[in-house]
Specification:
α1 packs antiparallel against α2 and α4 crosses α6. The strands form three sheets. The protein has a five-stranded mixed sheet, with no helix packed on it. It has three domains: 69 residues; 114 residues, Cupredoxins -  blue copper proteins (Immunoglobulin-like, Sandwich), CATH 2.60.40.420; 110 residues, Cytochrome c-like domain (Cytochrome Bc1 Complex, Chain D, domain 2), CATH 1.10.760.10. The chain has six helices and 13 strands. The longest helix has 34 residues. 36% of the residues lie in helices and 22% in strands. The radius of gyration is 28 Å and the shape is elongated. About 3% of the residues have low confidence. By secondary structure, it is an alpha+beta fold. A hairpin with a 4-residue loop joins β6 and β7.
């Protein structure tokens, strides 16, 4: 309970422990006084009741003491809150996007991941934005929690103190698959983190034209691998299965080339799922809704560029 796996946890633990000690002391004191007065002033001992006019000293004590205790709680809470809001200037910046129902983390060099990878012992500044509805960034082990509000940029920061993997939850109900909006914070020694970041940066640069060549095309195999990875990073797998099981959206298994019924402007029609349909359904999903499903998918136009969408479509084509 009182592990300090991040620097933020230390200030939270201090305030929590102070409140806990006061609560236990008050519980013991009040319980003792209740039992004492029940016995001492029972009807058997005092068959005739007495009128008590008051006790000024007692009234002062039970007013001043609770006030001091509450002010003490406020002090430790304020110190912890202020510490949480003062981000070090040299903190590493990670942009986090919450969307139904997955997380996307983007680093300053363009690397993206659905898992938050951070270096051990280095301050990390996580900027939080929501793509759709209210979410909440919650890492219990680090004792940090912050809401993501559409149209606002919030933030948290922390310094991890122990290597390992830590659960990351959405702690604000955000719809049908809220309980599946899970991820991890992976803390690595700085040399291992830098190696991971360099490796991921190469993945990003795979689609960039080489400065020494006029044009560079990805092979079909690498395009499929890229599409598979992007489908996870961009959150596609949060709503679409690849094994045929029903989720929030239609399964990706065997999707390419099959006929499906869609609803557009209240009218049903049958379409064949080809590249053009997949592109339109991704960029403007509300135009045609697959029959039997709700219109929950937000437009992906600002989240996917043409090359990323091509890679995902290539990946979907081979899911038989």
């Amino acid at each position: 309970m009182f592990e300090s796996l991040s620097n933020i946890a230390e200030s939270v633990n201090t305030a929590f422990f102070f409140i806990l000690v006061i609560s236990i002391a008050m519980l013991v004191l009040i319980t003792f006084l209740m039992v004492f007065f029940v016995i001492k002033y029972s009807r058997k001992r005092h068959p005739t009741s007495k009128s008590i006019e008051g006790n000024k000293l007692l009234e002062v004590v039970w007013t001043v003491v609770p006030t001091l205790l509450v002010l003490g709680m406020f002090y430790f809470g304020w110190v912890g809150y202020k510490f949480m809001k003062d981000v070090p200037e040299d903190a590493m910046v990670v942009n986090a996007t919450g969307r139904m129902w997955s997380w996307l983390f983007e680093y300053e060099n363009g690397v993206q991941s659905d898992t938050l990878w951070v270096p051990l012992g280095r301050s990390v500044h996580v900027k939080l934005e929501s793509q759709d509805v209210l979410h909440s960034f919650y890492v219990p082990a680090f004792k940090i929690k912050q809401d993501l509000v559409p149209g606002m940029t919030n933030y948290v920061w922390f310094t991890a103190k122990e290597p390992g993997e830590y659960e990351l939850f959405c702690a604000e109900y955000c719809g049908q698959r809220h309980s599946y909006m899970l991820s991890k914070v992976v803390v690595l020694p700085e040399d291992e983190f830098n190696a991971w970041l360099e490796k991921e940066a190469k993945f990003v640069s795979e689609r960039e034209p080489s400065p020494d060549a006029d044009e560079r095309e990805l092979t079909e195999a690498s395009l499929i691998r890229r599409g598979e990875r992007l489908s996870k990073i961009k959150g596609c797998s949060a709503c679409h299965s690849t094994d045929g099981s029903r989720m929030v959206g239609p399964t990706f298994k065997g999707i390419f080339g099959r006929s499906t019924v869609v609803v557009a402007n209240g009218e049903e029609r049958e379409v064949v799922v080809d590249e053009d349909y997949l592109r339109k359904a991704t960029l403007n999903p509300e135009a045609e809704i697959v029959k039997g499903f709700q219109a929950l998918m937000p437009p992906q136009r600002s989240l996917l560029d043409d090359e990323e969408l091509d890679a995902i479509i290539e990946y979907l084509k081979q899911l038989k």
